[in-house]
Amino acid sequence: QVQLVESGGGSVQSGGSLRLSCAASGSILSIYFMGWYRQAPGKQRELVAGITSGGSTDYAHSVKGRFTISRDNAKNTVYLQMNSLKPEDTAVYYCNGGAAWGQGTQVTVSS
Fold first, then answer.
1. Smallest Cα–Cα separation from 28: which of 79, 73, 94?
2. How do beta strands 105-110 and 10-13 pair?
3. CA atoms within 13 Å, Cβ hemisphere of 96
4. Please, are residues 89 and 110 in contact by the beta-carbon 8 Å criterion?
C-alpha cells in the first residue's frame, strides 16, 4: 500500500489561489480513483474532487469551475489547483487513493 503525503496548504485571502500536491511513495498507476477530500470543523469529510486513472474528473458542486484536479502518473503525484478561494473553503484537505489516506494539509481562507 502506498503512503500519501500532502503539501501546499496555507493561509490566503478570499479570492486567492493555492495548489495542493499529494505525493505517493509508490506507483499510483494501479489506483483507479484518486480523490481530494476536506473536513471543516464540526462537519463531515466530503469529496471535493476526484480523478480516474483514465483522466475523468468529478467535482463537488461547491468547487466546480474554481478547482482543478490533475494527476501525473509518472511523478506519482496528484494535484488540486484551487482558485477564487472563499472562506467556506477553509478545511483540512486530505488526499486518498485506494485504502491510503494522507495526513491532511490545512487550508485557511480569510475574508
1. 73
2. parallel
3. 15
4. no
Sign of the dihedral defined by the CA atoms of residues 28, 104, 92, 20, in that order: negative
CA distance 84 to 96: 24
Mean model confidence pLDDT for the chain: 96
Confidence of residue 43 (pLDDT cuts 50, 70, 90): very high
Alpha carbon separation from 28 to 3, 38, 49 (Å, rounded): 10, 21, 17
The three cell numbers locating residue 96: 486518498
Give the three-state DSSP class for 43: coil
**How many Cβ atoms sit within 10 Å of the Cβ of residue 12?**
17
Place of cell 467535482: 59
The three cell numbers of residue 100 are 491510503
CA atoms of 45 and 51, how far apart (whole Å): 18
